[in-house]
Amino acid sequence: MISNNILSIILLAPLLGALAILFIDNKLDEQNKNSSYVALWVSGTAFLFSLFLFYDQDLSSSLYMRNYAENLADFAFSFNKYFSLNHISIIFISLTTFITFISFIVGYDEIVTKRKVFSILVLLLESLCCALFSTSNIVIFYACFEAILIPMYFILGVNGDNFKVGRKFFICLLIGSIFLLAGVIYTISLTGVTNINSLANFYFSSKQASILFITMFVGLAFKTAIFPFHIWLPDTHTLAPTSASIILSGVFLKVGCYGLLVLLINILPKTSLLYSQTICGLSAIGVIYGAVMACLKKYEFKRLIAYASISHIGIIVIGIFSFNSLGISGAVFQMVSHSITSCGLFIIAYILKKYKVESIKRYSMIFFIIFLSGVSFPLTSNFIGEFYVLSSVFYTHTLSSICILIAEFISMFYLFEKFRKTFFGLQTRVEKMTMSYFLSIPVCVIAGIIILLGVFSHKFMLYTFQAAQNYL
Amino acid sequence: MLIIFVLSILAAIISFLGKYLSKPVLVKLSILVSWIGAVSSLSLLRYINLSDLCATYTFVDVFNFASIYGQVIRFGFRTDTLSALWTCITAILCAFTNLYSVGYMQSYAKFITYNNLFSASMLLFVSANNFLQSYVGWELITLFSYLLINYYHYLKEENGDIAFRVFILHKFGDIFFLISILLMVVYLGSFELKHFNSFHVYGINIHDIIFMLLLIPISIKSAQFGFMHWLKNAMIAPTPASAFLHAATIVSAGIYLFIRTALIFDLSNTIKMYAASYFIFTSIIGAIFAFKEYDLKKVLAYSTCSKIGLILATCCVGNYVTAILFFAIHAFSKCALFFCVGNISHALSNERDMRKMGGLSEDLPKTYSVTILSTLLFLGIIPNVIDTSMHNSNLCFSTAIYIAEILAIFYMLRVVYFVFHGESHLDEKSRGYLNEKSSLLIVSTILLILANVIVRILIFMQPNNIVTKESVIQYIFSVVLFICCVFIYKSLKIDIAKYVHLSVHLPQIEFSSLTKKLLSFQQFIENDVYSKVYVKIVQIGRKLVVQSDSEFLCLLVGGLLVLLTVINLAYGRL
């Protein structure tokens, strides 16, 4: 099969790229930006290959998880038998490669001093994340979950000494990982099985399931930044370089969401149903809290986006815990659209910081599309995800869905207001400093994807819908 | 329908390219395209059948938008009497305003882009076959109307703020629209535009709940009492935009949604009666408020509120045919009036204050005659059978309508007198600029008046029982009323003229205490709720959460509480 080889290419290409960059001479690199070019090429090819995964014919015939153990037996890497694909993991893998590619484009403009280190670390992170999204083994899942912290920690400090921020980030997520580790060890000691699919068929007593659920939920909640566990997110976003922020909100938060879906909904469906009211309540508080805080902190753009992310993550979690395939597919859609939108917003934040407003007025219409997606306006991708989530939970969690609607209204006061204050108003003449076309490419691509997903979402939704049904 | 939609999008794209590449030829071409759209919309007239508003329709399917609970929601274009009428009016008035803006504005490319996009979103809203597409169109209408109101954001700092407040108000209403759509999904299982059987939850008809929720966005969009001020504030938009949006289309979106929902839901009569009294109240109050304003466009804005209130009240009584025909006539005549106001302010270098005008009939003879014509058309003195046939329901209702009509005659006379008659209050500077050289403005106004007359003739020729003996009698009655009003006003005018000698400013007409209270209520909503309360909330919030340290504290407390509850719950269930 093609997709077996594609998966191994996607997993290994970034590693090989990182290895290649390691041998580039430091002084030469500063002049020629060689490492950036290599990283761009590698991540670009990985992204293109990941698009081919969508054409896998076997998956569309409702086959749940394909194990590659037999097919790849002759392949040199024996750990390949722990990797398998389903619809949702394909979506996340292509999302990861896309976001990494975009982050390299921004990093080309942004990262000046430690180009080589940045490229190596981000490629490593990409490989680890793809492994996490495609694994069917709980130990590998945990290992990747823990391991992506380390490159991320160093990426945060690339643009100077951000030791303090990195510390907060690292400590918070380490606590989460310890909780998850406890949960994983307890699971294995109970069952003796490490495959997630076979764990899904295993019977846990209600006490065991409750303990498992709480430990795993706390572990994942730190990484997902669900309301009381989100404290690391705003500070980290504010001080991190933009290209790191893009990966942080685009891939890092989604790892937690994917974990919620795979570990909690898949393995412990009954317990999740039991706690779904509590978690939806928490997320509803988070939705409102994030929106209000973003309103209060609207003068720091990156902090604003961070709080907006907390608000949107709440919607995703409500969708995941709605326990019907409509809600889960809406949540998956919302994850993709949130990644893309916040990625676009971070690029805009970077552009606004670096260039004068007057010189980028010609792009204001394209920026406007991304802002509109941020306030989940109809015909943008965020609206579709939100509408699916709302229509799936409106009957069961009416109060939470009204909270979502209120948060959507409040989002006018920060994101739309931000756009208005920046691009409208009295004209002031400043000397022109032209924006490089290089940066306008990702913004245009993101705006195009937002509109494309917002208008012609139907096929994509059918794709996620099939996968969501398998989790129930 | 699809063709007209594509044409308006095309016109927007062409004018955008024209601006981007700075080629005025392309912008002119886009105006031509919008005129082609207007002409082709006339072909929709064959779908109009007044005895069947929306039962029979044709549907052009374009693509699948979403699927919810196995039900596929299609985007497409539905053509029946209602949507055909609205499409015609939108396309024709869009073409007229595009033409007018060439004479009115210096750089009109951006305006034409926005205008055509607005028209396209209006078509999307009108031709929806389900409530999701309606919602999408509704939101796009809000967005583009915001962009049009925000058009002069670079002239004054406060313009942007006002436009944003208008936008926020609309978005507030849209929440209720979305909630009612969700209620439809959950309880009725569908949001296609088809007839629903009544469905009861806890003894309450769900249709009534949905309809009451929908009344909020409807009355916001149609600028009913409590939300009137947005229409007044929106007058900072360029005049062609006001003529298109705030006279004809955006305010009528509410009417359209009202008729659509009222036709497909079985509503209880109680709700209809309450709604009718609310709308009638708005129409009278709006007419009274029109006396308060000195800004010409704001007078017209309040008169629009009043007339839309009348139309909505007529819908509540169940007289849909009359309502939509009255709307058609009102859209054209109000648009013509806005064009006239635009002509006046264009001649006076953007002056719109009545107090600084006067005696302009000699200086601007063409504008004067055009304004008189369109005023007469607006007041229904030039034959307007529909206007009088609205009165045939009950006594209380028709009395209220007569009061609103008389007030309308008075405030229009006030405008005409203070602008064109009496003593001149022009300062020397603006007298120097005084001209009516731009013939395009006058020509387009005359064309619009002609279109208005044609619409009236078309309605008159409808094979329907709208023209009855009663209505003819009432028409004669209203003409007599008009003549009486003119005489009364002339006698009043003498006194006012004496007063004017004393001070440059016109006298403020004394309000009764009740009206003053209502006015202050309106101003309270306008000033306090939207700015002061919001600012105060933000201030309090800032005080509570100034730095991330205190935020951290709050979070620790909150997190502990949440954890405690989680643990409690867990042990309760072990």
Word description of this protein:
The complex is a heterodimer of chains A (472) and B (574). Chain A is mostly helical and 472 residues long. Chain A has helices at 2-22, 26-32, 34-52, 57-60, 87-110, 115-134, 138-147, 149-156, 163-191, 196-200, 206-224, 232-239, 242-267, 269-296, 301-320, 325-354, 364-374, 381-393, 398-423, 437-455, 458-470; strands at 66-67, 84-85. Chain A starts with a helix and ends with a helix. Chain B is mainly alpha-helical and 574 residues long. Chain B has 20 helices and four strands. Chain B has helices spanning 2-20, 24-41, 81-104, 109-126, 131-149, 157-188, 206-221, 229-233, 239-264, 269-289, 296-317, 320-347, 365-379, 385-389, 395-420, 428-433, 439-460, 469-502, 513-544, 548-573, and strands at 58-68, 71-79, 200-201, 204-205. In chain B, the strands form two sheets. Chain B has a two-stranded antiparallel sheet. Chain B is globular. Mean pLDDT of chain B is 78; it is low at 382-389 and 497-509. Chains A and B meet through helix 11, helix 14, helix 18, helix 19 and helix 21 of A and strand 1, helix 5, helix 6, helix 19 and helix 20 of B.
Percentage of residues assigned to helices of chain B? over 70%
Q: For the residues shown, what is the average pLDDT of chain B?
A: 78
- How many strands in all of chain B? 4
| Principal-axis shape of chain A | globular
Report the structural category of chain B: mainly alpha
Question: Using CB atoms under 8 Å apart, which protein chain pair has the greatest interface?
Answer: A-B, 51 and 52 residues
Present the secondary structure layout.
The complex is a heterodimer of chains A (472) and B (574).
Chain A: H1 2-22, H2 26-32, H3 34-52, H4 57-60, E1 66-67, E2 84-85, H5 87-110, H6 115-134, H7 138-147, H8 149-156, H9 163-191, H10 196-200, H11 206-224, H12 232-239, H13 242-267, H14 269-296, H15 301-320, H16 325-354, H17 364-374, H18 381-393, H19 398-423, H20 437-455, H21 458-470
Antiparallel strand pairs in A: 1-2
Chain B: H1 2-20, H2 24-41, E1 58-68, E2 71-79, H3 81-104, H4 109-126, H5 131-149, H6 157-188, E3 200-201, E4 204-205, H7 206-221, H8 229-233, H9 239-264, H10 269-289, H11 296-317, H12 320-347, H13 365-379, H14 385-389, H15 395-420, H16 428-433, H17 439-460, H18 469-502, H19 513-544, H20 548-573
Antiparallel strand pairs in B: 1-2, 3-4
